[in-house]
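Design review, sub-item: ligand-bound model
Attendees: FS, YL, KQ
YL presented the inputs for the iron/sulfur cluster complex:
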Amino acid sequence: MHQASTISISELASVLYCPVKYYLDLSVPYEVSNTVHICKHIAFAEKAIDPEELWEELLFIHPEIEQMCKEQFMDYLMIYRRGFQQPWTERDLYVHSKKWDISGIIDKFDASTSQITLIRGAKAPQIGVYRADRLRAFAYSICLQEMVEQKIQLLCVIEYVASGVIRTLDFTPRDRRLFLETIKLARRIRGGYVPTRPSQAPCKHCRHEKSCTSLSGRRLSDIFRL
Ligand code: SF4
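KQ shared the predicted structure:
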């Protein structure tokens, strides 16, 4: 059984995406996709660097990436170089909230403007920002506010690398409510609660499509010998 402990901000996004998937992922860890590695590498690249050199750097850092991904890499790089790259003074900034017992890593933080930037591998939605990305950004912002021990005006931006767009965020009470509901559900699931399948679950291409069909009102220990 998984004990309650610090929850990563990525986990919160996973609960929102599909609580059943989160539940199953606790026992079958997943790996970060090549697309995410590609997008992050591009988003931190110097503008003047040669694309071939950048590709070689990526392969050096992530030797598991196959040559067949090169076309995707070059496409994304061309889109990204339209000029929307967000600045940063710190990359991969670890943040933690004692109050909520959550932690995560902010992709980019610009101390001169107090701007948080998240780099996403998914294509951008037609308008706005995905709910899971709002949730991530909100969670990062409350961690950062707590760590600096003062109320600062944070700017939050999402870079959708594959679409070549950025979106900015303003938080509302709806974001706070969503955060509260999601963190409570994450803790319940960690405590053994088996979530029900959402009516509009994003099952297409989900790796758990077969195993989750049998989940209904059972406890974790009934399904996995933990
Ligand atoms: S198949 Fe659908 S309901 Fe099941 S875990 Fe995946 S997304 Fe969730």
